[in-house]
Design a protein that fits this description.
By secondary structure, the protein is mostly helical. 81% of the residues lie in helices and 0% in strands. The chain starts with a helix and ends in a 5-residue tail after the last helix.
Length: 89
């Protein structure tokens, strides 16, 4: 029951984000608007300390997704967890 409630809250956050920013507003633009320095520092840290190609291969495609999709992704995860635990989820 609790995981389904958390899933509903994530879906509600996805709806609010979609209506507030627009359905096509990218996650990268939203993060840049929220804190540009942190986004730039994350890029530098990933490229310097992990691997330079990881930024282009993993993070750039994620940043081009719509901003609401992150919330919806976590909502789906919690919904699946709740479905796997019948009676207790």
């Amino acid at each position: 029951m609790i995981t389904r409630t958390i899933a509903i809250l994530f879906f509600a956050a996805a709806l609010v984000t979609g209506f507030a920013l627009g359905w096509g507003y990218s996650l990268g633009a939203a993060l840049y608007r929220l804190n540009a320095a942190a986004l730039n520092a994350t890029q530098a840290a990933v490229q310097r300390y992990i691997h330079p190609d990881l930024w282009d291969a993993l993070f750039v495609p994620m940043l081009t997704l719509p901003a609401w999709s992150g919330w919806a992704f976590f909502g789906i995860i919690f919904l699946v967890i709740g479905a796997l635990r019948p009676g207790r989820g």
